[in-house]
């Protein structure tokens, strides 16, 4: 399991996606679109003029690479923040990533190397990075972020508008699919009264011990799936103590896929937690209500397009009696075929659901 590497992704995501809008001068900002350009508005509110034809993409936001691939331009990524060790499934379903250079690390970027890569545009998360040299060289920069399902759909639409009509059609299909899955789940879980909803804790990291609180997309899918967030904090990746977790007394604990270490499986990780003096004493562990979150081409639980699968997995995990007909392995296979341009075998889909790397 690429757990340590995924933790690095998470650190970047929390830094970039929780931050405010950066002050960035975009190439062509305010310039009317022509037949050879398009204009999009990024998450900072800046208008960014991009070429009508984009063949070379630099993508500094780890989660966003999957969105670009979903929209049909995964083979155009020539600079990235990813590596095969970080997201092995993504490199398996999109082997053209092997040619992409890893030029973005944490919140830093090798500007000269990005310029040498000659991208037609750069996608990045909002944050404190200074892209002035890149924009001064005439390369348009779109800064993107979201913390809600509506925000996810907006980022998908903005990216698609930059990439062109075929991408916009795919974006519409994806957003409709996401809406339909949310609606299907909500129909069954909305009637559950508050006092019948399990308290759910999502643990992002074991060392340091961090959890995900309110005002996050994690909180959204917990509520949608029929639970209530046990974490009495706001934001992503918040450091807490074991004593605090014990005081929250969660009914269900979902551990991020990044909590798996080495070559362990999800089952082995849960077994080790059950043998731990602290975790083994928690009711959720004793009652067999602890789970490892699936991880595929990107983390299911935050920021990627597989949020559409996360909603269903979480709903069945929290309320299995309401979702007896849901086969999450088959849903995963269908999703990858329709949106990630890859035909998973049943065994491959099972490994993804179990948060295991490709064989």
Walk me through this protein's architecture:
The protein has 359 residues and is of the alpha/beta class. The protein has 2 domains: 3-178, Rossmann fold (3-Layer(aba) Sandwich); 191-353, Nitrogenase molybdenum iron protein domain (Rossmann fold, 3-Layer(aba) Sandwich). 39% of the residues lie in helices and 15% in strands. Strands 10, 11, 12, 13, 14 and 15 form a 6-stranded mixed sheet that branches. Strands 5-4-3-8-9 form a 5-stranded parallel sheet. Strands 1-2 form a two-stranded antiparallel sheet. Helix 5 (132-136) links the parallel strand 8 (121-125) and strand 9. Helix 6 packs antiparallel against helix 7 (165-189). The longest helix is centred in the middle third of the chain and has 25 residues, at 165-189. It is globular and about 60 Å long. Mean pLDDT is 90; it is low at 18-30.
Question: Which helices and strands occur, and which strands form pairs?
Answer:
Elements: H1 3-17, E1 37-41, E2 47-51, E3 57-59, H2 64-70, E4 77-80, H3 88-93, E5 101-102, E6 104-105, E7 108-109, H4 111-117, E8 121-125, H5 132-136, E9 141-144, H6 149-163, H7 165-189, E10 199-206, E11 209-211, H8 217-224, E12 228-229, E13 238-239, H9 242-248, E14 252-255, H10 266-275, H11 283-286, E15 290-292, H12 307-318, H13 328-339, H14 346-353
Helix pairs in contact: 6-7, 7-12, 13-14
